[in-house]
Amino acid sequence: MSLTLLNVIVAVVIAIAFAAVNAAYLVWAERRGAARIQRRPGPNINGPFGLLQPPLDGIKLMTKQLMIPGGADKILFMVAPVLAMAPAIMSFVTIPFSEGIAAHNMELGVLVIFAFASMGAMAILFAGWGSRNKYSVMASVRAVSQNVSYEIPMLITAITVVMTTGSMDLKEISMAQSGGFWHWNIFPSLQSPLMPISFIIFFICSLAETNRAPFDLGEAESELVAGFHTEYGSMGFGLFFMGEYANIVIGASLTTILFLGGWDCPFGMFPGVWWFLLKIYLLIATFIWIRWTFPRTTIYGLLNLSWKILIPISLFNLLLTAGLLKVF
Amino acid sequence: MDQGSIQVGTQNVPSPVEAVPSSLVQFAIADKLINLGRANSLWPLTFGLACCAIEMMATGCARFDMSRFGAEVFRPSPRQSDVMIVAGTISKKMQPGIKTLYDQMPEPKWVMALGNCAISGGPFAFEGQYGIVLGADQFLPVDVYVPGCPPRPEALLQGIIELEHKISGWKRWKNPEAV
Amino acid sequence: MILETTQQALQALFAGSVPADEAEAGTPRGNGVLTRDYKTHGYHLDAQVDAAQLLAAVTILDEGGFFIESITGVDWIKENQLEVIYDFSRYDFDACRVVIRTRIPRDKPEVPTISTIYAGANWHERETHDFFGIKFAGHPHLVPLLLPEDADFHPLLKDFKA
Amino acid sequence: MSAPIQLRPDETFLLNVGPQHPATHGVLRVKMQMDGEYIVKAETVLGYVHRMHEKMGENRTYAQYLPNLSRLDYLGALGYTHGHVLAIERAAGIEVPERAEYIRAITVELNRVASHLFWFGAFVMDLGGFSPLMYAIQDREHILDMLEAVTGARLTYCYYRFGGLYNDVDDDFIEAAKRFIPRMRKSLKKYDALVSGNIIFQKRLEGIAPVSAEMCRKYGATGPVARGSGINFDVRKNEPYSVYPEFDFDVPVYHECDSLARYKVRMDEMEQSLRIIEQGLETLPDGPIMAEKKPKNIKLPVGDYYQAVETARGSFGIRIVSDGDKNAYRLKLRSPTYSNMHLFDEACEGMLIMDALAFMGSLDLVIPEIDR
């Protein structure tokens, strides 16, 4: 009993550490990647390849003065950044990195991750409302309406995958796709011919859910100053920042597990955690690439895309898959 | 306003030349580390007043690339920035706004006066003028002055390096004349 | 072509009288329409009107398809007068720049607003009010534009001391 | 795109955009009466960088005033100094040698390309795309290098003198400019592929913020703003000055009146400027760069002089009222963005805030030039 408890604690600590290190170094990767795209070197002087930049930034943010703006709702203001970071880290617990590496395998893994993901919207709403800043309120209203409308197509596509696999267990979903890339969910099968489209919908939704460009309306730097975290300085801002990157890792992991075969090797050889990591970092690189290439959409363009295009298509896909599952 | 638990302002940061009086409890190493962290991640406020702001943007862009020093993260909100680069002419109408922005920045914070206008009023200081504040140091504690009209991007980079030196006491490069 | 028609229309305000050029007479010119040499002056028509005739003159230009370039003032302290200068030009290739000017006494500086005809005159008039203290009667929002909100000085007056 | 909505003027709040706001490109403030994301009413507040240029015109001699003009609009500084020297030359009757005028035209056009490049980057940044700014500024740096070699400054040039130039261009400059033109054309194609072809970009600009030709006339809008509204107006063509009649170039005009039209006008203008530079370099005559007969202390005859030039932002006018002294009795600067910005208050009513800020970006604002 105590051994399993110890196991769980160790696993959870590793998951948290993984999330934190990832979040910190993704900031570095983002800055270097952006610099690469923009034909400049990027942070490269502090440490080899600028690798000391994230800890230095961290030290600075942690030792900065904590400020609560006058008239702000103190409780909401303080809770929001924690609420942005905590669910993201919690989600890591359920993600299986390979057959044996998972902090805690749950039968309802997909459900848990979506449940935690929807708490991110709460954090943004709290931050926007608690700051007592008009820009923050506007940004949080935007971000919440965006998160709510993109959760629907995301869930529907996830349900499609769950239906074909017959399980909500992330490990089983991943195992079901093993044995070469033609088994992966991204490729169409008899039962679900529209899977590539599902994958695109899921990817767009995960971009929108993590508030990344071109869907970064919650931050919208040139319109709403810094969006919902306008009034956050020091580590409050740092937590939002890290929460965003942790969410990106989760989005990429989920996409990998649901569509890209998890830790499966494309050629059926040496499946393992390295394939999983390779896949998620490739996806994250795509996230960064998209961010530094596209301009921002508008709020109505964004909502139209979700309600008029993504939701009908994903619903149709769900129906089709359900019907074909009955037939075959 | 809640001052928070950390009370380190510009005046509390040990200057590189002055010897810090020893106290009962020493946090020298932690202090050094903290100051290194602060010096190497100076996030400026996106805040341009006039001509010098264009050179400030040019410094952030590809050829000069301030990001090498970890200083490219221009934050639009004063709450998230560490250094205010006063780039341009300060008019009397704008002065209260700049003061507010400065007050909104959390400690520790630094001010850099970029260009002659922010140093002394520059070409716009003449007898009978009615709208110009003669320099940012009339109402802000300026740490680094970068002269020029406008200063070249290299000068701004030099200013950033000087500020880093002032904060941490650690020199990025040796003085070329001493070598 | 447009030059002649505009000139005639403006001329009609003065019942055909042509004033003497100030360079010749050595005294401030009287009201009326003058044609200027574009090469040296940069504009074609120069009409000095009475403050009461201003709206009529500007209406002529509005109907003629002119756009507003700027409004400004000049402080003629020796003559104890303020002058308001309106610049109008055209978008088409029939180049014609028209200057309308009006002189008002320094102690009672008031002219009617033309922002009812040209919406773009709004800021120009506010700016002129800032600098010279000229009141534009009927202006919807005559508060300082370039000077601070509580400014009560008019810096471009020649007797302004900072 | 935005469906017509019923605004509720009774349930509004006041949003203060600026004076320090990333979208205003400087210290401009707009008080917006908002209904959610929609703007009910906007009022622009100016003067945060009012630097008394007109006052300085009165207490400095004409030559002392020369450097001021480049601080007026630091992005297209040469166009403004050109206006000033032309006004003085017109009033004082100074004949400028042909070579000097050619070099003026070449450098002004180079500066115009630099200004438009900066605008391009800043505009796309307003829409949320960061990388084009970096590319545009890198190209702009090449122009600044060339201009720096000739004029001695990166931004605030004081290169023209009454009657000519401060110094002659050398072969290096001509070589560099000739190399620059094909490179810039290639870059323009790249920008087209990267930005103009992007669907998000088009959707955000197409049909947004229509400004009719009549509105332009009432507000006196000039430059790319007017040309994006179907008005074929360019001071270089309408009131030819300098050696512009010698060059063969087109004035790009778009009739859509929206933000995209204004964008296209500026992108096409860069190409036209390159054409002018190309022709200027080919036909650059030899000769002196300074007028022989030029009074040492410039005093203008009594009178009232106006000079308009086409700068990167529109028609810039300078009015000098002279009483025969060595400094102006009154010096009025008619800045193009002042009139262009004035449109904003009326045009943005009922718009979404993000569209309004994109519209503001499409006006190409330089705040010190508005405030003067």
Index terms:
B: 179 residues; three-stranded parallel sheet; 5 helices; disordered N terminus; D: alpha+beta; three-stranded antiparallel sheet; 13% strand
Instruction: Assign the CATH class of chain C.
Output: Alpha Beta
Low-confidence stretches of chain C: none
The biggest chain-chain interface is: C-D, 40 and 47 residues
Q: Roughly what fraction of the amino acids of chain B lie in strands?
A: 5-15%
Secondary structure: number of strands of chain C: 7
Annotated CATH architecture of chain C: 2-Layer Sandwich
CATH fold field value of chain C: Beta Polymerase, domain 2
Helical stretch tally of chain C: 5
Largest sheet of chain C: 5 strands, mixed
Average pLDDT score of chain B: 80
Share in helix of chain B: 25-40%
Q: Report the mean per-residue pLDDT of chain C as an integer.
A: 83
Structural class of chain C: alpha/beta
Radius of gyration of chain B: 17 Å
Rg of chain C, Cα atoms, Å:
16 Å
- Structural domains of chain C: how many: 1
What strand line-up does the widest sheet of chain B have? 1-2-3
What order do the SSEs of chain B take from the amino end to the carboxyl end, as H and E?
Answer: HHEHEHEH
Tell me, briefly, the overall form of chain B. globular
Helix content of chain C: 10-25%
Find the CATH superfamily of chain C.
NADH:ubiquinone oxidoreductase Nqo5 subunit
